[in-house]
Amino acid sequence: MRTSVAIIGAGPAGLVLSQLLARQGIDSVVLESRSRAHVEQRQRAGILEHGTAQLLRDSGAGHRMDQESLVHNGIELRFAGEGHRIDFAELTGRSVLVYAQTEVVRDLIELRLAAGGQLLFEAPATEITGIHSAEPAVRFRQDGAEHVLTADVVVAADGYHGIGRASIPADALRTWERDYPFAWLGVTAAVPPSTEELIYCHSPRGFALHSMRSLETSRLYLQVPPGADPSAWSDERIWHELDLRFAKSGWKLDSGPIVEQSVTPMRSFVAEPMRHGQLFLAGDAAHIVPPTGAKGLNLAVADVTVLADALSRWYTSGDTAGLDSYSATALRRVWRAQHFSYFMTTLLHVDPTADDYARRLQLAHLDYVASSHAAATSLAENYTGLPLAR
Ligand code: FAD
Ligand code: DHB
């Protein structure tokens, strides 16, 4: 089997890349280890930056998004029992969309398959060969048989645990990493959101986030200890804890049946460079941010936008400049998002190892962000997304 661009992973990075390439007349094959139903149902991100939404629209994948997403012009920062609005529209002229990753993935899969795109599900990639040759290849399994996909380039969009990054010799990569002393318990609840905009809440009991999936479905997150057992959290305990953390006079949290729950570790990670020979890394395969600030999916889309432009330039004119600068261009945005995600995470969570002085400083920092036009503008600019450098 042969294609131009072999893509490993049908998450947002792999799917957006195959869609952008198809628009440029460049063929690709996407190998995905899981089933279509699994990738379409995996609960994850919920917020699309202004530029991510525009990119999806421009690539022809924005039709349902524009009908069903919710436009959000701000968020609430809640701490010390009071709410403070960060008005994105006023501070930056931009907004974000609430549109779940599951929906983005569904839309892209439908679009690619309808156009005759090659997405192979339940087809795990097992090995990448010939990385330094003009004909790299990916070995994969499907229906109990071994296959080989040869290509001009291989893009590993296979997430943090994929084989792409692991195929690069350790001495050719530099990595940076931080683990946080907390995790998120995320729940989806069949109850209308108790708020019009997202609430990022700091309380002495820990961080809580009120998000949503639609006007009928709430999505909520609680800071919990790393490795917390989701089964130790009954519905009653979850709603009680959320009530305590979000407490604000005159405001009430509506509860309802919890339909899904899981625990996510919090990690920051970057691998540099994002290219080795003819193998390119994109999205979570190259970098992870803690989810506070909603950057992971948006960064994955930004990477492949840069990569699709570079590949298109190469295929149309033989010019390798875009491919040669891909890693440096993508990493500039990656590190900005690393800092913002770290900033939001440390601003809002309770660090069990912090001393009293650090905790008091944290409140002073929250107060500054909530009351300074300059600080709020910086938060709003990063949250809604900086322009894409190509
Ligand atoms: P993935 O989505 O991980 O896709 C990689 C794909 O590769 C997977 O489908 C996997 O099955 C496949 N794969 C792996 N190995 C192989 C193999 N060997 N062969 C074939 N296929 C393989 N981001 C935001 O922007 N906003 C948010 O609000 C947000 N909230 C989040 C909340 C939670 C609870 C979590 C967990 C994450 C959140 N994120 C958020 C992060 C976001 O979900 C990820 O950054 C995003 O999924 C990255 O996309 P990706 O395509 O790079 O990787
Ligand atoms: C969601 C997740 C986030 O990490 C975030 O910062 C905002 C919203 C969500 O899943 O809805």
Task: Measure the end-to-end span.
Answer: 32 Å
Quaternary status of these chains?
single chain
Name the overall outline.
Answer: globular
Percent of residues in helices comes to 25-40%
**Ligands:** flavin-adenine dinucleotide, 3,4-dihydroxybenzoic acid
GO molecular function, one term: FAD binding
Organism: Tamaricihabitans halophyticus
Domain FAD-binding: 2-340
Keywords: FAD, Flavoprotein, Monooxygenase, Oxidoreductase
Question: In words, what does this structure look like?
Answer:
The protein has 390 residues and is an alpha+beta fold. The chain has a domain at 5-72 and 95-177 and 267-349: FAD/NAD(P)-binding domain. It has eleven helices and 20 strands. The protein has helices spanning 12-23, 36-41, 50-58, 63-68, 88-92, 101-114, 235-246, 296-317, 321-348, 356-371, 373-384, and strands spanning 5-8, 28-31, 47-48, 70-72, 74-79, 82-87, 96-98, 118-120, 125-129, 137-142, 145-150, 153-156, 174-189, 199-203, 206-212, 218-224, 258-272, 275-276, 279-281, 287-288. It has an eight-stranded mixed sheet. It has a six-stranded mixed sheet with strand order 8-2-1-12-19-18. The longest helix has 28 residues, at 321-348. The two termini are 32 Å apart. The model has no long low-confidence stretch (mean pLDDT 97). The site of 3,4-dihydroxybenzoic acid has 10 residues, from loops. Keywords: FAD, Flavoprotein, Monooxygenase, Oxidoreductase. One of its GO terms (molecular function) is FAD binding. This is p-hydroxybenzoate 3-monooxygenase.
